[in-house]
Structure formats: structure tokens, C-alpha cells
Specification:
- By secondary structure, the chain is α/β, with parallel strands linked by helices.
- The chain is built from 9 helices and 11 strands.
- Helix 2 packs across helix 6 and helix 3 packs across helix 4.
- The longest helix has 22 residues.
- It is globular.
- It binds pyridoxal-5'-phosphate (PLP).
- Pyridoxal-5'-phosphate binds next to helix 3.
């Protein structure tokens, strides 16, 4: 979901961006007009997340999954192993795609328990000589989210695809943060990489130029044509977050939105959430019905109430309310009202 304000601004500017007589879609990526859009978006993101000059901010194509391979190519820097924390299907996929390039040291895994918790820190097998330590802040499918930043000695790498900009974050704790745009930022097709400059430059042999962070940074992410319209949309979204109070305010609202649903679920003998309360996601609230047979009527009646996309991921089953930044509290309240009403009639 994208905010109505952002969508209408894009609509108003669609045929004529700021008096140029052209759409952003029609402007060349090296023109002063687009360079303005690009620089403004980067500056606003730096401001929102408090990103210092020690970091490159890259606007790339290829999606978040692409980074599962690109991270090892760039960050091994002569080493042969990296630490991976396995908390769900996205981290497991990152492990699978990293394996051709390195020895994966699995720090811990929640797989055996069906990815319902984050293994306690004192059980982790960290390797202080690893090239980096990788984790997924929010497991979008399982609804499991870190509520703290792991404390490690190696450069910390984080897939923040489904939680970026949902609360303030201390970027200085990280070596690299990446996020596909389509969950919390902009339409699909753009990936943001925030990477510490000192980690860049020593890539694996045969790394294609386009996948080389340093080369992309030297050319302002324009080694080839970037996804310009998505970059523009990301900029509008950053402006929207800024003008609505910034990350502290979004943290407050996101907490309120998710608590509303978790309280309803926990207080009901009807709905169920199996994730350990200390690591429940604020972005993706998973819940189950007492009987699978109620799934079809639930989804159908939800749609009749203009509540869409509540079916859980095929690997996880059940239901999932994805309540990213653009989802207003009011809409979550409407979902809660519907859930109570559904329980009253079917419970
Ligand atoms: C959606 C998602 C991805 C995959 O993103 P693509 O852009 O489709 O590759 C990766 N990681 C997380 C945490 C996600 O939620």
C-alpha cells in the first residue's frame, strides 16, 4: 500500500513534472531535472535515518533477493566464511543463495520450531573472524521481528526489506543495510543499499561492474539506467514520512497498530498467533482461525468489507495482515472490528 497523498501527487505530476512539460518517466536519468529528483530522495533518506558520510546510499534494481548474492560478492574481502542467523524463510533463502560464494556458519536456527521465535543470544555460535554477520530484521512470512540490534564483532548486514523506515535505527551499528522498496517505500523494482564505504572495493573476481557497490557509488547508482520512476516515488514517500513526523512518530503509530491486533488475537479464544510475544512483527501480523474451513468465508467477507490481501504466504498458511507505514490506524481498526464481528458470527 502507498499513501493516498503520495499517489495523488504522482498523479498530479504525471504529465508535467514541475513545469518541464514532461513526465518523470520521460526524463533522461542524467538530466539536471532527474539528478535533482535523485539527490533530493537520497538527502531525505539520509536525514530520516541519520545516515552519515561514512556510508554510501545506493538506488539499485534487481530486488532484495538479488542482494542475497551481491552481498557476498562485495563483502567477503578476501575471507571465505560469514555468519548467518536463520529466523525464517527469507534468511534461509539468503543462506542458500550465498552458499556458492562462501562457507556459511549458521549462528543459530529457529527452523526446528517452525520459525516461531528468535533463538536466545547466549545460544548463538558467532565466529569473530567471519567476513560479516547477516540477519533479517523482520521475517515477512513468519511474522518474526528482531526488537534489538544483534551485538556482533564483525560487520553487521541486515535485510530490512519489510521493516525499513518503520522506526528509528542506529545505522552506525551496521556494515550494510538493504531493502527492496516494494514493502515500505515504493513500487516494486528498486532496492536501496546503505553500505559503509570502508567495506567497499575488494570484490570477488568476476563480480560484474553493475554489482560492484563501489563502482555504483562512484557513478551515483547510474552505471546504467536506474529505475527512475521508482526512485522518484521513493523520494515522494520519504517526503511524506518526514512531513508526518519522521521515524519516531511512525514507530509510535506502528506500535499502536500492531498492538491493537495482537491484543485482539490474544484476548480471543478464536484467533491464534504462535509467535513468541518478544519477537512478534509490527509489520506483518500472522493469525490463524480455529478451523481451516473458515478461511474461505473469512477472506470473502473481508473483501466485501474492502479488507484485501489477508491470505497468509503459501509457505506459512493462515492469515496475515501486512500493516506497513502507509496503512492508517483507522484501517487497522476496521480490520479489528471485522475480526470481532466474524468471531461473533462463527465462533
Ligand atoms: C519481500 C522480501 C524479500 C524479497 O524481495 P524481492 O525484491 O522480491 O527480491 C526479501 N527479504 C524480505 C525480508 C522480504 O520481505
Amino acid at each position: 500500500m502507498l499513501p493516498d497523498e503520495v499517489m495523488s501527487q504522482a498523479q498530479q505530476e504525471m504529465l508535467d513534472w514541475q513545469g518541464t512539460g514532461m513526465s518523470v518517466m520521460e526524463i533522461g536519468h542524467r538530466t539536471p531535472a532527474f539528478v535533482n529528483i535523485a539527490t533530493h530522495a537520497e538527502q531525505t533518506l539520509r536525514e530520516l535515518m541519520d545516515i552519515t558520510d561514512e556510508y554510501h546510499v545506493l538506488f539499485l534494481s534487481g530486488g532484495a533477493t538479488h542482494q542475497f548474492s551481491v552481498v557476498p560478492m562485495n563483502l567477503l574481502r578476501g575471507k571465505t566464511a560469514a555468519d548467518y542467523i536463520d529466523t525464517g524463510i527469507w534468511s534461509a533463502k539468503a543462506v542458500r543463495l550465498a552458499k556458492p560464494y562462501l562457507n556459511v556458519n549458521e549462528v543459530c536456527s529457529a527452523k526446528e520450531t517452525g520459525y516461531r521465535h528468535i533463538p536466545p543470544v547466549d545460544s548463538w555460535q558467532l565466529d569473530d573472524t567471519a567476513a560479516y554477520c547477516y540477519y533479517t530484521e523482520n521475517e515477512t512470512v513468519g511474522g518474526v521481528e528482531f526488537q534489538y540490534i544483534p551485538d556482533v564483532k564483525t560487520p553487521l548486514v541486515c535485510d530490512m526489506t519489510s521493516s525499513i523506515l518503520s522506526r528509528p535505527v542506529d545505522v552506525s551499528r551496521y556494515g550494510l543495510i538493504f531493502a527492496g522498496a516494494q514493502k515500505n517505500i515504493a513500487p516494486a523494482g528498486l532496492t536501496i543499499v546503505i553500505v559503509k564505504k570502508e567495506l567497499c572495493g575488494d570484490v570477488l573476481p568476476f563480480t560484474p561492474d553493475l554489482l560492484n557497490y563501489e563502482m555504483q557509488a562512484n557513478d551515483n547508482s547510474m552505471l546504467n539506467t536506474p529505475p527512475t520512476f521508482n526512485w522518484y516515488m521513493a523520494g515522494l514517500m520519504f517526503d511524506w514520512i518526514k512531513s508526518n513526523g519522521g521515524l519516531k512518530e511512525f514507530e509510535r503509530i506502528n506500535r499502536e497498530k500492531s498492538s491493537l491486533l495482537y491484543q485482539l488475537i490474544d484476548n480471543s479464544g478464536f484467533y491464534r498467533n504462535d509467535v513468541e510475544p518478544s519477537c512478534r512483527s509490527r509489520m506483518n501480523v500472522i493469525f490463524h482461525l480455529p478451523d481451516e474451513k473458515l478461511m474461505t468465508p473469512f477472506l470473502q467477507e473481508a473483501e466485501e468489507n474492502r479488507l484485501f490481501a489477508l491470505k497468509g504466504h503459501k509457505l506459512a498458511g493462515g492469515l496475515r495482515a501486512s500493516i506497513y507505514n502507509a496503512m492508517p490506524l483507522q484501517a487497522v481498526q476496521e480490520l479489528a472490528d471485522f475480526m470481532l464481528e466474524f468471531e461473533r458470527r462463527h465462533g
